[in-house]
Amino acid sequence: MGLQTLRAKWIIPVDGRPIEGGSVSLQGGRILAIGEGVRADTVDLGEVAIVPGFVNAHTHLEFSALPAPLSPGLPFTGWLRRVIQYRREHPTVVREAIQTGLKESVAGGTTLIGDIATSGWTPQDYEGAASKGPRVVVFQELLGLSPERIEPLCALAETHLGDDPAGPIARRMLSPHAPYSVHPQVLDHTISLTAPHRGRTLAMHLAETASERELLETGSGEFRDFLQDMGVWQPDLFGGRSYGDILESLGDLPRGLIVHGNDLRDKELMRLAQFPHLTTVYCPRTHAAFGHPPHPWLTLLSLGGTVAIGTDSRASNPDLSMWNELQFLAERFPDVPHHTLLKLGTWAGATALGLRSDCGSLTPGKRADFAIIELRDPAFRDPNFDLFAPGNRVIGTMIGGEWAVDPTTR
Ligand SMILES: [Zn+2]
Fold first, then answer.
1. How close is the Cα of 161 to the center of ligand 1, in Å?
2. Could you tell me which of 378, 336, 17 has the C-alpha nearest to residue 327?
3. Are 366 and 358 in contact (CB under 8 A)?
4. Fewer CB atoms inside 10 Å of the end CB: C or N, the chain?
5. pLDDT single digits (tens) 245-297
6. Which domains occur in the chain, in start order?
7. 173 Cα: distance to centroid of ligand 1 (angstroms)
8. Ligand 1 centroid, distance to 206 Cα (angstroms)
């Protein structure tokens, strides 16, 4: 790939101030320079902003074939029952769903995804759109509470980490699903497999609902009924546990994703903020669809904690567009500068997934992963405050120096 220069009304590097009337030069799939000069062979993209490609820090691509969310209006465990039922009824749609999800992600400007993969997937499921699809950090999901599941799950974890990443799979990591669905010994083992390696990260759903806390602390409530109905209730595993203890264990990791964290309280947030290598992944539209109490992301940020953004899956969200997710946040939280939202949707996600040295900002040497935003909202004045204005939209996505969605051929 030869030298190429793109000019835009705004260049928003994220790790520096926005540049008006700037350009980005790229070569060999990487960013060569960011600047204000314009060369003769420059491609002028017009009234657009070039921003780093979005990083979707949390999704489950396996559900991308769902035409609509699975009744998130249900109580949380009711929704979980629907998810389990869907998985049983659709064991063969994984590849088609992943491919659909990758395409939808690219259309929304996403260039890197943290995907939770259950059993039954193969690396080929992520290929096909490989040369023009987002890169994916595949977290092998580990699910199982019974003592008999400990050994096979630990073996699965080791096998997954032992295989080399290839093609669009940028990294292979582990996801012990949640405190209510994975045996504590499996959690401990995955932490021991992840902790000694600087490049590794781990993702765990945590503190999604108040009933999860009730189960951990008292061993009772809606979740106990759910586990009993599923035939997987383990009385010895619940009661007397706390999020605080789990956070201390995860604190040993070089990096980790706390997925959701909806129900974390002040004391837990203060402790979490002392582990800036643990990123809390807020999934705004999924959070809203369940009608949870307000998410503590702004408190966590104010305490110095780390927050990234995810779409979660189509089982709880109408689409996988990070652009739509960030516009939703901009509308709901008008006091938060758009530059902050952009940073959470790019830099913070790349950091959480262990790829910040490679992407997440427009920095010379990093991959040429861009989203192109058409600035057609009449109210647009300043990208720090108006980038996610309702009339703006994604019109292009570049991944590793190649257009996945080409804004010049519309
Ligand atoms: Zn999830």
1. 20
2. 336
3. yes
4. C
5. 999 999 999 999 999 999 999 999 999 999 999 999 999 999 998 889 999 99
6. 4-52+360-409 (2.30.40.10), 54-352 (3.20.20.140)
7. 15
8. 10
